[in-house]
Amino acid sequence: MKVAYLGPHGTFSEEAAHRYFKDKQIDWHMCDSVPEVLEAVGDGLADWGIAPIENAIEGTINMTVDSLLVNDLYIAGEVILPVSLHLLGTQGTKEEDIQEVWSIPPALAQCREYIRSLKVKTRHFDSTASAAAAIREAGRNDVAAVASAYAGDLFGLVKVRRNIEESYENQTRFVVVTKDKKAPADARKTMLQVIPSDEYTGVLSSILNVFSALNINLTWIESRPTKKKLGAYQFFLEAGFGVQNPLIEKAVAVLQTYGHEVNILGSFTATKLD
Question: What is the distance of C-alpha 272 from the center of its chain?
Fold first, then answer.
């Protein structure tokens, strides 16, 4: 079985993929971008793909949502990975000697107060993993990276300071996708795409009322442009029941009766990693 994920080595995506598929024999297919991960599955280069779709601080990752549609994929799993950030350096690095901190801009932003207290410069990289790898290659004691414990272990770095993020509730949600549109028997959530029949006042409210009337909890709501004209939107809804639940079938039927286009993007159960 081949699984595609976002590289380089040491990313949160790699950690999520390796932990989710830990008991299986996997042929890993590392990609350079999120769209490439989903394209690999869509083109048959990989059987499964895992990609980040939402972060507790940064919000929805739109390129994942858009690429799901382009590649006609099915969400069959969800992984929730806690995000802890550490200041990583080479052996012997001391906090007081650090002159520059390296990482991806969102990670630096999530540790803004701590980095400000160090009174150091920052340098941007394309991933936390790339920053950690660069620290190892530099072999210096006056620079450090903001990255995960997984990256630190992979590149042989030490934790100069642990848990420097400002929010200890930070998590990233990943979707596990395949081309096989078959829901797991134990699915507890369903992702739907709803394209309104027309643009009119209260259209989103009327869609949401369908789920409210059926007592279906929505755990995620996102709007994206239809890309047909300015101001035309489609909605992505995550319902708290598996697709096999009769209430989901009824909700879809009612929405279609109103003339809306409804597509099931996946049905799955969340896996929370410690």
Answer: 13
